């Protein structure tokens, strides 16, 4: 048996000890130590990335979810952020729901991952334009309010628009946005000049682009500038 095949068989046994045979020359007791070590390592990484989801699901369901992820998904990275990204991908593609799983599960996990991703990002605040550390997001569920003591069963009529960003003090923060502010943030993030973005939004929503309209938009832009979200060009 080749070394590569031995590694594959070892990994298969680690992931599915109940169905995969023991490798020749390794006792069941020794293999059990490896199995527990690998599973606990993944459980620690994933649990640290999704603390709210873990508490919402409860210990038993969380352990079953982790075991399914560990068994079914072949992780390609040992790193904290990478494992959490792969967990999100598995929830989107390979996860099989159980009765009682909350409908907001994937969105809550994504929101928690965003906080982690911004916290460890190597991106820097720009001199001009929209910060790469500021992400406008829209969810069906009010993910920023969900917790073990608040688990809604129906989404609100309107989507929850959020802006999550890392400021100059490297603190990750969030604010809820009105739909207009969310759309303006998306346009600025895409590099659209602010005046053009405001005019096009006014047209799209049937709003009068008058002095009051631009004053309200300017107040929003000034607030984002003060929070290290948007850095205007001199002509802005």
From TrEMBL:
Ranges where the NGO1945-like C-terminal domain occurs: 131-224
Pfam family, one: DUF2063
Protein origin, superkingdom: Bacteria
Every Putative DNA-binding domain range: 5-91
Protein name: DUF2063 domain-containing protein
Organism: Pseudomonas sediminis
Organism placement in taxonomy: Bacteria, Pseudomonadati, Pseudomonadota, Gammaproteobacteria, Pseudomonadales
